[in-house]
Amino acid sequence: MCDTCGCGMPGEGVRIIKPGEHKDEQTPGHLHTYSHKHAHTHEGQEHDHVHTHSYHHEHDGSHQHDTDDPDSHDHDGEHSHDHPHYHEHDHKDEHPDDDSRVIRVEQDALARNQLLAERNRGYFEALDILALNLVSSPGSGKTSLIERTIREMKDLYLFFIIEGDQQTTIDADRIHATGAPVIQVNTGQGCHLDADMVNRAFRELDLTQQAILMIENVGNLVCPALFDLGESRRVVIMSVTEGEDKPVKYPFIFRSSGLCIINKTDLLPYLDFDLDKAREYAKMVNPDIEIIELSVKTGEGMDLWYEWLKKEKKSAL
User: Fold this and answer.
1) Distances in whole angstroms, Cα of residue 284 to Cα of each of 143, 166, 220, 280
2) Lower Cβ count inside 10 Å, N or C end of the chain?
3) 35 with 212: CB under 8 angstroms?
């Protein structure tokens, strides 16, 4: 799980951003995140002690720092700090059965996530909201699919979008240009969204009844498979540029998805991609999965996607 794959501590560096309201690093009111290490000795054992500090500055005037004490500030203007601290200790000497401890921590993390996911799902169901968790490798066309869907279906449905990426608001800015309400979640070192991030994000969106919520997960076919967000349906997207063996290489994400979209079919004449084999592999992993082949670029097959949306939206009511 994520403790062992290296994507960082839960919640570390996560930012919820509204397009048009975020501030860059040169603008007053920016967010700082940094880490530093201290060496500590416990019972003769020296180990590193990592601190991560995130704080927000609102500058109005000047401030001075006491050079003798780096933590003391003399403020002539407003200067607000919020310093959440995270501490990592490597105490292997205190935990001889390290493997069992990792398993227990992972089980606890997944259990907490599942509890909040069920709360999210109950909220969506109460408002008759169809919540879709879109998962894929980077570059499969998730954002383009969402953009075209909004533009061609906005007269029929109200769409809300949650965009998940480690950094930047590039995708959220693209969705914002369509006029749909959107929130960007930057996961920092995280390689997936979780139920807490989604909960924090949709509270900023002011969801309305009978809407469609599209959650674009971080581009990754591994970790998102483990984390229920409270979605109504999970949709896995692959493109013909990735190879037809994706379903058997990453079976867990395909097994937990209700729909597989094979995108960029307009490129088939130029690629050595076996469409029949891709379908076979997907059905081998998940016999119940539905499959739609389309090209977001040309629009071919998009009508099948729209029909699927209408069917799922009707069943969600």
Assistant:
1) 28, 32, 21, 6
2) C
3) no
Query: What does the pLDDT read at residue 2?
Result: 56
- C-alpha to C-alpha distance for 232 and 128, rounded to whole angstroms: 10
Torsion of CA 252, 255, 258, 261, to 10 degrees: 70
Q: Which of 204, 211, 214 is nearest to 162 (CA)?
A: 214
Distance CA 32, CA 23 (A): 11
Q: What is the pLDDT of residues 140-178, one digit of tens each?
A: 999 999 999 999 999 999 999 999 999 999 999 999 999
Q: Residue 283: CB partners within 8 Å, gap ≥ 6?
A: 289, 291
- CATH class of the structural domain 110-316: alpha beta
Per the CB < 8 A criterion, the answer to whether 163 and 184 are in contact is yes
Place of tokens 């059965």: 97
| Cβ proximity of 215 and 231 under 8 Å | yes
**Tens of pLDDT, residues 217-256:** 999 999 999 999 999 999 999 999 999 999 999 999 999 9
Please report where in the chains the tokens 């490798």 appear, as a residue: 137
Burial class (CB in 10 A: 0-12, 13-18, 19+), 242: buried
Strand partners, 85: 53
> Which segments in the chain show pLDDT lower than 70?
1-12, 22-106
Separation CA 295–CA 267 (nearest Å): 9
Domain ranges of the chain: 110-316
